[in-house]
Amino acid sequence: MRIIGRNQVNTLLTWPWHKVTTGYATSHAWAGTASYSDGLYNLGLEVARYSGSGTIMNHCTDTLLNGI
To answer: Are strands 12-14 and 56-63 parallel, antiparallel or unpaired?
Structure first.
């Protein structure tokens, strides 16, 4: 899971991934912040499932504009 957003000219901004590596049916909680010197627009989350080798197998994103 990671925070995503857009800047004032609609460029995609991403923050570091937070991972759960303890296996199926486990969870973890994180606290995070996002900042950008010229302002943030359309913040959201990206969630992905990785293979054992670290390749993204699938992912989804949603933003506050879409009502997450």
So the answer is: unpaired
